[in-house]
Every structure is written in C-alpha cells, then in structure tokens.
Amino acid sequence: MSLLSTHKLKKIFNGVSAVNGVSLSFEPGKITSVIGPNGCGKTTMINLITGMMPFDDGNITIGEHTKIDNMPAYDVATYGITRTFQQPRLFEQMTVLDNILVVLTERNVFKSLFERHDKYHIDIAEKILRRVDIFEKKDNLAVNLSYGQRKLLEIARVIAMGERTDGESHILFFDEPFAGLFPEMVKLVSSILKELRDEGKAVVLVEHNMDLIRELSDHVYVLDAGEHLAEGTAKDVFSNRGVIEAYLGD
Amino acid sequence: MDYVIHLLILIGIFSILGLSLNLVVGYTGLLSITQAAFYGIGAYTTAILMRALGMNFFLSMLIGIVATIVISSIIGTVLSKFKDDYYALGSFGFNIIIYSVMLNWQGLTRGPLGLPGIGRPELFGLILSENGAFLILVIILTVFVFLLSQAITRSSFGRVLMAIREDEKVIQVFGYRTHSYKLLIFIVSAGMASIAGSLFASYITFIDPSSFVLMESIFILAIIILGGLANNKGAVLGAIIMILLPEALRFVGFPTEIAAQMRQVVYGVLLIILMIYRPQGVMGNYKL
Fold first, then answer.
1. What is the CATH classification number for the domain harbouring A140?
2. Tens digit of pLDDT for each residue in B191-202?
3. In what residue span(s) does the ABC transporter domain sit (chain A) (predicted)?
4. What is the pLDDT of residues A112-136, one digit of tens each?
5. What is the ipTM of this complex?
6. A-B C-beta contacts closer than 8 Å
7. Are B178 and A50 within 8 A, CB to CB?
8. How far is B31 from B14, CA to CA, in rounded Å?
9. Which domain, by its residues, includes A157?
10. CB of B145 within 8 Å of any CB in chain A?
C-alpha cells in the first residue's frame, strides 16, 4: 500500500505546464527514484508535494484517504513528509549542531519558549552528525562548510526529521543528494539511503547518476517535459525506447 | 555624581530598547524600524495615567505594557505577512503614524506642547524622586529585561527565530508556523520597549512627540548594529557606547556652534566604518 500518492498533479507556470497530470506513488520500505532530463519537473514535483508551491489541479493523498492538497508547508510536515534541497539551503549563520537541533525541538510556539536543548536532544543530534561524518564540524557555522559537507548536513536534517519523537517523518525526498560528493561520501550517502529504506521509510530519490539509480532503486519513474513517460524497475525503464530517446535525443 | 547617575539611567533605558529591538532585528532578522513608537506608547500611557488619574507609576507601566501588546499584535499581524525590505518599510510607516497621532490628538497628548509634570514612581509610600533611587529601579528593570531576553534566545523558541532569519521557507518545511513566531517576538519586543518608555516619562517628568520620531527608532537600531546583532550583551554595550560617545565628544573641543552637527557626523562615520570592517557589530553573531 502506498504511503503517499499524487493523482494527475498539474502545475502551470505562465502558461507552460511544468508538471502535467503526473501520478506517482511512494511505498514504505522502498527507494523510489524519479528521473528525467533537466527541467522535466522533478524538483517542481517535490515543491508541490511538500507544500512549498501551490498546484493547479490534481490531488495528493496520504495513506488511503487523507488529502493534503495545497496545504501550507508547515502542515504538510506534520504528515511526516520532509526533503533535502538540491542547492543546499542551510541555516547559514547558525552552528551545524543548531541546524540539527532546530529540526528536533518542540513545534508548539508556547511550549518551545520553555524548552531548553537538553542532553536528550543533543545526544540525538550528535549521533546523526557522526552518522553523516560531519561531527567534528558541529560548532562551525554552516556558512563555513564545504559544498560536500553542506550536502551532508542537508541529509542530516532529514535524518533528524525521521528521529523526531513527536511525529517522525517517514516520507523522505532527496533532491540530487549525490551531486558534488566525493566517491567516499557517495558510498556513505547510499548506505544511509539503504538504511532508511530498511527502517521502513518511503525514500524518494531524484538523481541523474544512472549507476546509483540502478543500485538503489526499487521502483523508477521517468518524467519528461512535465509528463509521466515510463515506470518500472531500473532494468525495465533503461531498456525502454522512449526513455533512451528522452535522454539521448532522437 | 548626579551627571554620572543621569548617564547611567539613560544607558539603562536605552539598553532595554536595544535588547527589545535585538530580539526582532538581530535574532529574527526582521528589520523593524518602529521601536520608538512602542517606546512612545509606553511613555504616553504612563504620563497620561499618572497626570490625569494620579495613578501609581508601576500600575501605569503595566497598563502601558498591555496597551502596547494590544497595538503591537494588530500591527504585528500585518507586518508578519511581509519580509525583508517590505517589512522595514511597513514598520517605518507605522512609526510615522504613531508619531502623527501623538502630535495631533491634542485632547489626549497636548500635541507639540507635550505633557509636563509627570510624577516619579512611588513604592510603599517611598517616592523615588532622588535620581540615585531611580537608578536602582532602572537597573532592576534592565536586568529583568536582559534575563528575559537571555531566556528567550536560549530556548528552542530562540533557535527557531534564528532559523526564520536564515531561511523562513525552509524552517516551514520542517513544520514551524513561522508567522506565529514572528508575531509573538514582535509583541514581546514591543512590551519591553514600553517599559523603557514608562521609565523615560517618569524620569524626565516631561514628554513630547519629538522623543519618539523615526530618528529615535534609527538611533535604537544603531545601538544594536554597533553593539552586536543577535547578542544580548552586545545590545547593552551598544547602548553604553551610543550614550557615552556624545559625552566624550564634548571634550574633543568642537566649536560650540557646530558641536551638535559634528556629533552626528561622527556617528555616521562610525557606523560606516563598522559596516565595512565588522558588519556584525562589536559583539554580534549575525551579519545583516
């Protein structure tokens, strides 16, 4: 059963369809990849699903019945949906540790006034930073991290969302998490994605690297020019003629 | 000695203003240029209630805070929809509106004539007419506001404020209703500024609208930019520098006819130098 599905989602920018009737479905305990040429609407899909951008038509459903159409981002988050950003959007003038802590703490305005970052939160945050191998940077400002470290901190925030005690996230979108990473880091991130999958999360991967798609994906969707082009296992879609044409041109 | 006490009282009042504005500008990144309006509402509420009803200073201060909270929640609701430059311009407009009200609602404020003869605080039959005693009150309230600011900025709430400052859209994705945070900190900040206003009215015993003009808001902004954005100690340091600097400049020996203008020039030059070499201020943790 799918954890999250979109039904004929549509988004029009100035008369151009960025997403045109796309229906996708994401299952727990699986890595679902969304691929396609640049500008095919992958990131736009994530923006629509996470509530960062309103859409023009279609539905987004959590579980079987719960509709979250055009809900503001902070409400979408309460349904356990979270994401990374292709171009890292960190809290730059805050420490690496604070970047994680802010994800873990109380969401209620008044309760948060009386909450201090106690040892409990710090322990979780430090564990996550060790897992993505940027623990020794914890007291640095995010603005001083290298590009690869920034990508890792993006991933760490999503892991943190998954570890929240009140309402953990279980639908995780990774928007090109491997871009710009050293080979060692690529191995680390792909093992993290597998672990998250094995924990039962619905992992959604937007990626260009075909070897990684083959290695990681349980199911692949191919988008082209805002439309659903193909789907199936990695092996199926990469032998699909339409997909090859979309990537290589006619 | 009286001169030193006078300066310390002013430093206390402007520390409260700096601390209050730092919560909004330094921590939350909302460039609010309207702090003098809330400062003025506090001052006028105290002045009017003490003059017209002979009310106790402390009660009038509390009513001033309540009045400021009500007004700032209306303004804050509107401002919370804005960000960046639009926020600055909106807040700017609000300061002008409040100033106009003070100037033109003659029945209540006596307009440009101002309100003279405001009393000093009275506590258990003890009137703090001595400046030394008044200074103790100022110190107590400044410490209170400082500790409150520390408690807020060190809480989880404070960390969310900084995240809003860094990227509001992203912190929404992580599940925070940012407009509630922006509104609440704006109201808290306004309430603090109102305390400073009550102290000022009672200390000087005379107020008129000229103390609450837009320039005053910019002066308070300069305090925190100089002392340090997103640092509570920095706000106090900024107040100390901005109050003592003109006093120090007195002894530089500018000819009397241009002394006042020269002080403005020195202020301006100092701010420019700071923006070039240390944009986060002396003790700051955040660059605009």
1. 3.40.50.300
2. 999 999 999 999
3. 4-250
4. 888 876 788 899 999 999 999 999 9
5. 0.92
6. 91
7. no
8. 18
9. 4-248
10. no
